[in-house]
Amino acid sequence: RCQVANEGITRLLGKVDTLIIIPNDRLLDLCDQKTGVDNAFKLADDVLRHGVQAIA
């Protein structure tokens, strides 16, 4: 799984100006075991939005 992810990153780097990589472990730190899938994706969206806003 990690190898596939790294290959995807390598392919993307040649096609984009900026690539934001957020490790899944970082996202897991924001959730607890009671967090539902929908809320987990909302948290991930928030992290990505804040990262993009910081760059823009």
From TrEMBL:
One GO CC annotation: cell division site
Record has Nucleus as a keyword: no
GO molecular function: GTP binding; GTPase activity
Record bears the keyword Ubl conjugation: no
InterPro entries the record matches: FtsZ/CetZ (IPR045061), Tubulin/FtsZ_GTPase_sf (IPR036525)
Extent of the signal sequence: none
GO biological process: cell division
Keywords: GTP-binding, Nucleotide-binding
PANTHER family: CELL DIVISION PROTEIN FTSZ-RELATED, MITOCHONDRIAL DIVISION PROTEIN FSZA
Protein name listed in UniProt: Tubulin/FtsZ GTPase domain-containing protein
Organism annotation: marine sediment metagenome
